[in-house]
Amino acid sequence: WDPKRDFAFGMLHAERLCHLMAEVEICKVLVKQARDFPERMELAETYLERVTPEVTYLYDEIMTTGDRLLKKLAEQE
Questions:
Q1: What is the pLDDT of residues 36-50, one digit of tens each?
Q2: How far, CA to CA in Å, does 74 sit from each of 12, 37, 64, 68?
Q3: How far apart are the first and last CA of the chain?
Q4: What secondary structure, in 3-state letters, does 4-70 show?
Q5: Is residue 61 pLDDT above 90, yes or no?
Q6: Is residue 8's pLDDT more than 70?
Q7: Cα 26 to Cα 40: distance, rounded to the nearest angstrom
Q8: What's the rounded Cα separation, in Å, for the pair 6 and 27?
Q9: Cα torsion for 34, 40, 45, 48, to the nearest 10°?
Q10: What is the pLDDT of residue 43?
Q11: What is residue 3's DSSP assignment?
């Protein structure tokens, strides 16, 4: 994918990518807080356990969907 040539892929998956990146940043903050305040470790672990399947799904969705739609749109142009 070359974003300088065609940004359709990025636009198609922008919401998924933003959601995934937001979850990653939240996890980073929770882990940092857990290192600084050990009493928050359980919260960080619980959140990581709950968000891991969602983030994995978003990543898989980005990597495996959209080709057919993008090809169809390119043909229409």
A1: 999 999 999 999 999
A2: 13, 52, 18, 10
A3: 18
A4: CCCCHHHHHHHHHHHHHHHHHHHHHHHHHHHHHCHHHHHHHHHHHHHHHHHHHHHHHHHHHCCHHHH
A5: no
A6: no
A7: 14
A8: 31
A9: -70
A10: 97
A11: T
